[in-house]
Design brief:
With about 270 residues, the chain is mainly alpha-helical. About 60% of the residues lie in helices and about 5% in strands.
């Protein structure tokens, strides 16, 4: 675990946090995929890059705002400047995803991009980018799992470190790695679906259902109680959002599958 990668002795000292670096690398990974696949589907790389810029702002704002509303209200009211301290953790993926989807609909309508094709391009990009970003959670110790009774091979124990968000010295469920592995699996499934895709929108609908299942499952092993509950201690806020997300993905899948104008002969 390395919450701080290194420090630069300039301007009083600049600290480079692993969480921020991995989140940034996750966005880079997503951009690389989106520009590559977007070009193959007839979307100009410049449009993809502009799109990503708006999505980046929207996702960062939404994920931070979602965290403050659910878990960080008290800290925010004491010091509003903490809203900008993302290197300390506190980015809720669902908040970023919801905000990004709203901005995506606006951008697609404004620049007349093919909606279903565009969303299909970005579905694997979200999965691979999120997989990389979750490693930052592991390095920082945030989004940690609950305690494991006994020393099982799959448990992870964080060493004593003043910058670690997780409890130290006790075995915990490796929820960060569980989600990273799950996202990589989702990416692989989406690649398989992409190869045999039968209708436009199949990838984004599949992603919504697959990630909802993954997140609902991993929430059962989370130990960071400050993430917020809808019905404490049974249903967390993220599990509630997961249920809605699954239903939305399922509805999209069934609806689009029945539309003749959404069917495609093959995928480029």
């Amino acid at each position: 675990m390395y919450p701080v990668l290194f420090e630069i002795p300039l301007f009083g000292g600049i600290t480079i946090h692993s969480y921020g670096v991995m989140v940034a690398l996750g966005f880079v990974a997503g951009i690389i995929w989106a520009t590559h696949d977007g070009k193959k589907n007839g979307i100009e790389p410049s449009k993809i890059l502009d799109f990503v810029f708006y999505l980046l702002l929207a996702s960062m704002l939404g994920s931070r705002l979602f965290y403050i509303v659910i878990s960080g209200r008290e800290e925010f009211f004491q010091n509003p400047l903490t809203a900008f301290q993302i290197w300390r953790g506190g980015l809720v993926f669902y908040g970023g995803l919801i905000c990004a989807l709203v901005v995506a609909v606006w951008y697609i309508r404004k620049y007349k991009l093919p909606p279903l094709v565009t969303f299909d391009v970005f579905a694997p990009a979200i999965a691979i980018g999120h997989a990389v970003g979750r490693i930052g959670c592991l390095l920082a110790g945030c989004c940690y799992g609950s305690a494991v009774s006994g020393h099982h091979w799959y448990a992870i124990t964080f060493p004593n470190n003043p910058n670690c968000f997780a409890p130290t010295g006790i075995p915990l469920y490796p929820t960060q790695l569980m989600e990273t592995g799950g996202e990589l699996l989702i990416f692989g499934i989406l690649m398989l679906i992409r190869h045999f895709r039968r209708f436009k929108g199949q990838l984004i609908a599949s992603y919504l259902m697959l990630y909802a299942i993954l997140r609902f499952s991993t929430e059962m092993f989370r130990g960071d109680a400050e993430r917020g509950y809808l019905i404490e201690p049974w249903i967390s806020t993220s599990q509630f959002v997961s249920a809605i997300m699954f239903l939305a993905g399922f509805y999209m899948y069934v609806k689009l599958r029945g539309r003749k104008d959404a069917w495609c002969a093959r995928v480029k």
